[in-house]
Amino acid sequence: MEVGSVEGEVLSYTGVDVSGGMLSVARDRIRESVPGLKRIMRKRRVEAMPRLASATAGADAVGLDEGGVPVVLALDGRVRLVLGDAERGLPAPPPVGNTKGPVDKPAAKYDTVIQTFGLCSVADPARLLANMAAKVQPDTGRILLLEHGRGHYDWINRMLDKYAPAHFHKYGCWWNRDIEQLVRQAAQTVPGLEVVSLERPGWFQAGTTFLIELRVKSQSAQAGGNVKKA
User: Which domain of life is it from (predicted)?
Assistant: First the structure.
């Protein structure tokens, strides 16, 4: 059976994280979830997990360039886990084609980009959103976000503000950011970025949890939308 011959088939998967520990967990789960990987992947990674480069990292650190460094490459590169910083840039999609013959040209964009609890954890949320927008297929592609931040009620937000520094030092995220404002501002500045839906599910979460769907309009779609009827 050729790759892409089944309707709705996931042609490739690329996971990106700055944490080697999280990628180790992801490796275990993807090995269990993807058919055939148990036969070709060791139960445990033998090689030491590389360290992500930073401004103070030594010469043995990696991933400074845009896209990071793969720590899992399977099924002709169609299943990847990448150690990298999405705030610096995202890896391009892998080539997809018949695994028994020449692969097609690399896809320029992803069909879907999914991010969980990232806007609270990076120094520049707008840049992260712009990076995701740059890698998703215009018009038909989607960016799906699961986030947490400021809620509906002032008393909850005051509590979030009070304990935000301690929470950041322990978990690395600012849980009191105004996520809706960040996303809507990005939609005004990132070319083509558009909010499809923004929901705050679960009344017991008091508006602190966000499910957000974004898309990027192509230049032709933007131009068409600006044409006035005679």
Answer: Eukaryota
